[in-house]
Amino acid sequence: MAEKLAPEKRHSFVHNGQKVFEWDQTLEEVNMYISLPPNVPPKQFFCKIQPKHVEVGIKGNPPYLNHDLTCPVKTDCSFWTLEDNIMHITLQKRDKGQTWASPIVGEGQLDPYSTDLEQKRLMLQRFQEENPGFDFSQAQFTGGCPDPRTFMGGIRSD
Question: How many domains does the chain have?
C-alpha cells in the first residue's frame, strides 16, 4: 500500500532549456537524478555530499553542480550511485517529513500548488507509515494540509 503513495513523477530542474536534474522525495529522503555525458568513464565522476551542500562533476574539472541544499541532510546515510548513465544521489533528510520545494537553494523551486501537492502526499505517507493496516492512497484533504513533520506532535521516532 505504501508504494501507492510513492512519488508518481519526478520534478525537473531546467536551466537555459537544458535539464540539469530530476528529483523526487519521500518522508525520509530526497532523490536527485542527473543524466551523465556519454563517453566519460564512470570512475571520472564524483559527488561530494555535505550537511548543507552538494558538488557533482568530472574529476579535474570545475563541478557541474556546486550548490547549497535547501535543508540539511544526514551525510552518514546519504550516498550516490551510477547506473545506465544516470547519477542517483540519495539525500537523507535530517528532519524526516520536511517538505522540500527543491533540493537546491534558489534553483528549480516548485510552484506553490506543486509544493502543496507534495506536502499532501508526504502527509499521506506519514499516515500510512503510522497505520500500516490502512490504505490512505485514496484519501484527500479539504482545505490546507498540515505539515507532515509537525502535525499532532510530530513524527514519532522509533
Answer: 1
